[in-house]
Amino acid sequence: MLKHDSKTPFAELNTSEDEPIIEIQNVTKTFGDVYAVDDVSLKIYQGEFFSLLGASGCGKTTLLRLLAGFETPTAGRILLDGQDVTHLPPYERPLNIMLQSYALFPHMSVADNIAFGLKQENMPKAQRVERVNEMMQLVQIEKLANRKPHQLSGGQKQRVALARSLAKHPKILLLDEPLGALDKKLREETQFELVNIQERLGITFIIVTHDQEEAMTMSSRIALLRDGRVSQVDTPRRLYEYPSTRYSASFIGSINLFEGTVVSQQDDQVLIDSEEAGGQLRVRHSQPLVAGMDVTVAVRPEKVRVTEGAEQEPNHVQGIIKEIAYLGDVSIYHVDLPTGKRIQFTQSNIQALAEQPLTWEERVCLSWQANSCSILVE
After folding, report:
1. Three-state SS across 221-262?
2. Whole-prediction pTM value?
3. Domains of the chain in sequence order
4. Which of the four, 52, 114, 132, 240, has the lowest number of CB atoms within 10 Å?
5. Which of 165, 170, 163 lies closest to 139, judged by CA?
6. Model confidence over 84-122: pLDDT tens digits?
């Protein structure tokens, strides 16, 4: 069984011999002339915490509803654990779903809400009570057993909804923006709790979110969607460090993009002329590129460093600081280059007052390593 944890990153696991627990095969869903999901194919494996990430209207919620059985594909197939469930109703699929609204029954206690699905399946009372107690202990709400939903905070309602979703021990749990109603601090705390619960139970979690930090924190892999299509599927680290498209690079975190033309390539070193950078850029890139090819160089703000001179060398630019954002742990600087291009770099605020603080209208020389940037061809 595949397992996502800090010791065994998903990217290092060999999935070629594993059968996916979910296989989405060329699935399309249209509403009239609108393609909500457009020829999507994905494989999701047992024990993954898999995120469907994207902006509003990208098709991620529709794809989740297709998996749940609330919608039927216009074309394509959906397999769960090797079984074709494309046309099966939700109650015949080996999964459960946790909705953003939580959908708790207002007239029932916490314990009765959690037990509802078990009661519907005619589980014996003694076994049902034991399962409910197990779930309440899992999400740490034992003291809330007799309360009604209106007596709970948003975070407590979220825990009850999660316990109810897990009570039937589904093979797969679908989560539709489950943390959207929580404040920032509670949302961050709950992210780690969800990961811990998922790893303890070994259930496959599939979460829909528009929050990139949420997806990066919790996921073993992320599918980034755009206009109903998959832009990139990868681990959080690879999605951030090695985006395959301009959209992937721009959606995840902040990024500096330089348009340019390939001059030459020797081994894995590519030399690029960039008018926006005001000179040449050097990038480590293993795939062969053709001289004269138009490309985009992407470099994250935290990879950019303040240096002394050498502006004639590749990956060195000069500019004037125009904007500064102090965020406590880091400061973000916006720098205008002589070409008119504005770029960003960040510095950690290790000391309360830096020895040589940078300020507005100051001229700085910036640089980055060839292996700290990437080339985008789409």
Report:
1. EEEEEECCEEEEEECHHHHHHCCCCHHHHHHCCCCEEEEEEE
2. 0.84
3. 10-94+170-248 (3.40.50.300), 254-376 (2.40.50.140)
4. 240
5. 163
6. 999 999 989 989 888 777 788 999 999 999 999 898 889
